[in-house]
Design the sequence.
């Protein structure tokens, strides 16, 4: 899926079994229904502390994960640069196989298993 920015996103899921309000989520907190998801740009820790947000939001996120209220479904794919070939690749996992792949924003879609 070339020419997107989906590989730059983090997705979180409410696994509590009910609707919960997560005050630390970007957008001044969010209420998520059971199994509801929210997507944020970039790394989740950076997203929840962006701006003048308190660092305690990180502790609240960790507590929500420890208490099985929230799950990190996916994070941005690691982007690696190969100076030998002057090319960036990202790591992806599909069907339990690790791949290097052209970044999601590239116009090409080459991939190779690792």
Sequence:
């Amino acid at each position: 899926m070339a020419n997107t920015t989906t590989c730059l996103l983090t997705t979180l899921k409410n696994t509590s079994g009910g609707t919960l309000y997560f005050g630390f989520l970007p957008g001044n907190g969010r209420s998520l229904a059971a199994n509801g998801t929210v997507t944020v740009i970039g790394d989740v820790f950076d997203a929840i502390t962006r701006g003048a947000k308190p660092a305690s939001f990180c502790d609240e996120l960790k507590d929500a994960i420890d208490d099985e209220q929230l799950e990190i479904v996916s994070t941005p794919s690691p982007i690696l640069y190969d100076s030998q070939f002057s090319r960036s690749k990202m790591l992806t996992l599909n069907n339990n196989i690790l791949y290097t792949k052209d970044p999601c924003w590239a116009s090409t879609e080459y991939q190779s298993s690792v």
Summary: Residues 6-74 form one domain. The first helix runs from residue 44 to 49.
